[in-house]
Specification:
The complex is a heterodimer of chains A (188) and B (194).
Chain A lengths: L1 E3 L5 E5 L3 H14 L3 E5 L2 H11 L3 E4 L8 H8 L12 E5 L4 H10 L3 E4 L4 H13 L4 E3 L4 E3 L28 H13 L3
Parallel strand pairs in A: 2-3, 2-4, 4-5, 5-6
Antiparallel strand pairs in A: 7-8
Helix pairs in contact in A: 2-3
Chain B lengths: L1 H6 L2 E4 L4 E4 L8 E3 L9 H12 L3 H22 L3 H17 L9 H13 L8 H16 L6 H23 L4 H8 L9
Antiparallel strand pairs in B: 1-2
Helix pairs in contact in B: 3-4, 3-6, 4-5, 5-6, 5-7, 6-7
Classes of the chains: A alpha/beta (188), B mainly alpha (194).
């Protein structure tokens, strides 16, 4: 089984609701995290991101000054900050399809609709840590590959032009650790 | 310098896009164990930590209701302004998202209904004050009476009625905006948090 050493990860949690920040912090500490920083709006969230250099950002959507979507777009600016690739988990009460797609198109890595649960948040963190996706950069998008799977039966138009295979089959860390574990256990 | 080179992401360039594989710095936090040690389940530990916090949830829910009520009063006193509109929406939205976590799941649909009224009304000044009152009062009542044995039945009836009145209002307000009507009638698609 995969074990995440949360004490080696640094989080920034951005939510204007102090109660929800407390809940997320409690869950992260419960998993074993030690470094959890908080911010109460998009502007201080961006400052916390720049200052603390977190491994993972967890943000709400609806916030004053600028919201979680705008924050994501600011972080996903290649060259504008130290880590535009940082995993961003959006934790929100919005669950409509157009919202999910807007978050995806802004460059959010994982979307978690409230109500929040310990299992739901853990699974999103496990996913970004052990199964990271490559990034795609086009004229209009920079963010995690929005194609989570390749569908061999897909027959529609190919929107990406390139000639070569357009999608990496990234070896997930889960598979990598499995392989390493098997090697270590095999005799000789 | 060596580190900088190691940190550089691998990039493959195609006709109209690049695929970038950043160095996975989070791999430092992943290990594989053959057998879980007793007490090692992080989800169980987090649930336990949350349970310890739960004695505060009743007070938090009351705080959220007071905030919603204050936002409603502000709207009734001033009429809609950008500031009080946002506050009313955020209050309702927070209750929609947090109520179940706080142990008050029955009021989340009513809060969602209020969010829909605010989000999909093309002209907020046309939103009847009575419709806002009905939502806010229903949410507060559901929280207050959460422990009643028949709370679920009453909440279901109230929620259905609020939803019906809201749908009727929004359908009339958006009769010339078919794209909004489609959104209003579309069910949520995001997976549950479980």
């Amino acid at each position: 089984m995969i074990r995440i050493e949360f004490n080696r990860l640094r989080f920034v949690v951005i939510d204007d609701n102090a109660h929800m920040r407390r809940i997320v912090r409690t869950l992260l500490h419960g998993y074993g995290a030690r470094e959890v920083y908080e911010a109460e709006d998009g502007a201080t969230g961006l400052e916390a991101f720049t200052h603390h250099m977190p491994d993972i950002v967890i943000t709400d959507w609806a916030m004053p000054i600028f919201d979680g979507l705008e924050l994501t777009q600011m972080i996903r600016q290649p060259g504008a900050n130290a880590n535009p690739f940082v995993p961003i988990i959006m934790l929100t009460g919005h669950s409509e399809k157009k919202r999910v797609m807007a978050a995806r198109d802004a460059g959010v890595t994982e979307f978690l609709a409230k109500p929040l649960s310990a299992k739901g948040l853990y699974q999103r963190i496990l996913n970004v840590v052990a199964n990271p996706r490559p990034f795609v950069k086009t004229k209009t998008y920079f963010g995690p590959d929005r194609r989570r799977n390749s569908n061999p039966n897909y027959v529609g138009p190919e929107r990406r032009k390139g000639g070569k295979a357009d999608m990496f089959k990234a070896q997930a860390l889960i598979d990598k650790t499995q392989t390493l574990g098997d090697k270590a256990r095999s005799p000789g | 310098m060596a580190n900088q080179k190691e940190d550089r992401p691998a990039t493959a360039t195609y006709a109209d896009h690049e695929i970038i594989r950043p160095v996975n710095k989070l791999s430092k936090a992943v290990s594989r164990v053959s057998v879980a040690m007793p007490g090692e389940d992080p989800v169980a530990r987090a649930e336990e930590a949350l349970a310890q916090l739960s004695s505060e949830f009743g007070k938090w829910m009351m705080d959220e209701c007071e905030r919603l009520d204050a936002a409603r009063r502000q709207v009734k006193t001033e009429g809609f302004t950008k500031k009080n509109f946002d506050e009313l929406f955020h209050s309702a939205h927070d209750i929609k998202g947090d109520a179940a976590t706080f142990g008050y799941p029955l009021c989340a649909p009513a809060a969602d209904s209020l969010c829909r009224v605010l989000e999909h009304s093309p002209d907020p000044s046309r939103i009847p004050v009575k419709l806002i009152d009905q939502h806010v009062d229903a949410i507060r009542a559901m929280v207050r009476e959460n422990a009643r044995p028949d709370a679920r039945e009453i909440a279901n009836v109230l929620t259905k009625r609020l939803r019906a009145v809201t749908d009727d209002f929004l359908s009339r307000e958006n009769m010339h905006r078919p794209e909004v009507l489609a959104v209003i009638k579309a069910p949520p698609t995001a997976p549950d948090a479980a």
